[in-house]
Amino acid sequence: MKKNKVTIYKVAATAGVSLATVSRVLNYPEKVKPETREKVLKVIKELGYRPNVIARGLASRKSTFVGIVVPDFSRGSVAEAINGIVKLAIKYEYQTLVFPAEDDNRNKRDVWSDIIASQVDGILYLNDLHDEDAIEGIDRINIPVVALNSVFKESKIATVNIDYSDACYKITKKLIDNGRKNIVLATTERKYTINDVIKEGYLKAIQEANLKSKIVYTSGKTDKNTKIFIDYLDNNKIDGIIGVRDSITISFLNNAIISGYNVPNDLEVYSCKDTRICKLARPQLSSIHVPTYELGKIAMEKLTVLMEDGKLEKMDLFVPYKIIERETTK
Length: 330
Fold this sequence. Notes:
Layout: H1 8-15, H2 19-27, H3 34-47, H4 53-59, E1 64-70, H5 76-91, E2 94-100, H6 108-118, E3 122-125, H7 132-141, E4 145-148, E5 158-161, H8 164-177, E6 183-188, H9 193-208, E7 214-218, H10 222-235, E8 240-243, H11 246-258, E9 268-271, H12 277-280, E10 286-289, H13 292-309, E11 316-318, E12 322-324
Parallel strand pairs: 1-2, 1-3, 3-4, 4-5, 5-11, 6-7, 6-8, 8-9, 9-10
Antiparallel strand pairs: 10-12
């Protein structure tokens, strides 16, 4: 017999109600307004939905808790993703718990101990600094996990991203087609998974054009970048910059302008995130537009399906992206 693919999320979305409301209709219909009950029952019949354990749990007033594992809160992309997650979580009456997985001064194993103790029903994983503890922790908790803006090449973790490699390949090609031959990629010393994928796209375009790759590794901390970038500019001639984060890109851009570069005539610049600070920079920063808010919402949707059905038809989802041309490119 063919497995029923309709989920409680689909019912709730179609009826325009919360997951908890659908569950109450199924289990305690007398507690739901007649007009709402009839609307939900009609959708259930039309879709052929069959209730499961999560629906019963919600109906019995057991809250569904979703844990959000995040890196540094100061990143604009993290804040935007959380906004998208929380908006959908509120709509469907989920409770959210945030677990900081800081790069320094914290034993990452403590994060997974906290998650296990909290008894969350699912995890949204936003941290793209992976190590063995991270992989081991995800395997150990044995609950549904969806990662966004994070790459798991050797683990069966559901992910939601844009195709960063393809995007960086395209902006590097744009710079090359504009006659740029000394294009620098500004990335981080730490092995962030997204930054590694961005580098793959950059190197592919550079190698196809028989150009020499130029990569600057920074700490990712704005206050430490200045010396690194000034030293590089003092010893190298460049005509293109691609930065893995907006803060890194703007820091490099500012130092290049101070060093006498005219942007975009002498130097064209792209970033790879397109948070709101791209428009606040002067000149405004061209960028790969990552729909981070939408990534958060989509990841929440995938996690809902995974918590209910235990599997997804497609584990890795690429969301469409755009390349936004502003004042730092021709």
